[in-house]
Amino acid sequence: MRQSELFIKTSHKAPSDEETEGAKLLVRGGFINKEAAGIYSYLPLGLRVLENITAIIREEMNSLGANELLMPVLHPKENWQTTGRWETLDILYKVEGHGGKWFALGPTHEEIIAPIAKKQISSYRDLPAYFYQIQTKFRNEPRAKSGILRGREFLMKDLYSFHTDEKDLEKFYAKALNAYKRIFKRLGIKALLTEASGGTFSKYSHEFQALSDIGEDEIFYCKACGFSQNKEIAKIREGACPKCGKGEIQKSNSIEVGNIFKLGTKYSSPFAVKYKTKSGEELEAVMGCYGIGISRIMGTLAEINRDNRGLLWPEKVAPFKLHLIELKKGLATKAYKSLQDKKDNILYDDRDTTAGEKFADSDLLGIPYRAVISQKTKGKIELKQRNSSKTKLVSINNVKKLL
Ligand code: ATP
Ligand code: MG
After folding, report:
1. Higher per-residue confidence, 389 vs 342
2. Is residue 99 left, alpha or beta, with left meaning phi > 0 and alpha meaning psi from -120 to 50?
3. In angstroms, what is the span from residue 292 Cα to ligand 1's centroid?
4. Residue 293 Cα, ligand 1 centroid: separation in angstroms?
């Protein structure tokens, strides 16, 4: 893409209404635009990042054999009354429609997926079944002050699994846990598998926590073996690690980027999601749910990967792989055309502006590779990685190979 055709501009000034450094950079770089506390637009560059994160998650969900679907944002009040959560869930947005009919704006989708599953499941032969979606959620969060880390409207991947029994759930839960590990590895996030409260069958549910000073969660963890518990439930305290005995338990703030949960029959029971066993007995299906905060991941990456000049996107999620910069009008057009491919991996700074401004913008945007063409490079390209200060002169073929 030509930067002259990118209609969103960067800004030198940090926004006064953002508290975290990552959020400030995302706004300055033109990745997001704040509409109100916890409500953001994802601008062209930000959308590209979200889509790259989503693609990785979608791939891993499909590899689990889960079916993708898309459920509504507007949920009938009756569904939420069935589980009792119309009254008890304090973050639920409630909206009135025609004829005094009430709806909830979906903060999560157990109340929708369970009735869908009920229609499909009648026999043990219909199980297990796994459904996921990538969708905008709404939560009336009381404190939405950390940029896109805690949105009132945010993008989530939610997966729901249905099983004949606890043993089958255990099997899938372990697989989903491994898929989550792969996802965070691919996204370049060190996420600690953390025990948290609220498990059915097992003592714990599991959260994936990324260490960060500005995180709203607090965890105890062992640097040596990675054992970790959320402070809310923690039995462990600072001292020797009860798991490996070698490491020291430390306390840190952290960001919850995902969690997985054994639900048991909490939602299958009120919606009567039942199946017939081989012997004809009727039993309630057992459920699990598995969430990942896609927009929160984007915010987390911005908090974790940055320096005083700007963002440093990991290659797999970066809005572009290469930032091609010309220091004289038209000097890099030929190179751009020859490097262009279907993936549209290159941002070509063809703007009529100073070298200083181009370099500052390049650092702010955090594209992994910077390629400069000037009169001094004499037909070659000066290549530099965003996270390094070393430059080298390479041929256009070298850059092609890199892409
Ligand atoms: P938290 O403890 O942060 O409030 P949660 O435990 O309520 O989150 P879930 O309901 O399980 O989270 O949602 C699944 C995932 O969605 C979370 O792990 C998190 O990554 C993300 N998430 C939850 N709430 C928000 C929010 N308000 N804004 C952005 N992402 C969120
Ligand atoms: Mg939580």
Report:
1. 389
2. left
3. 7
4. 6
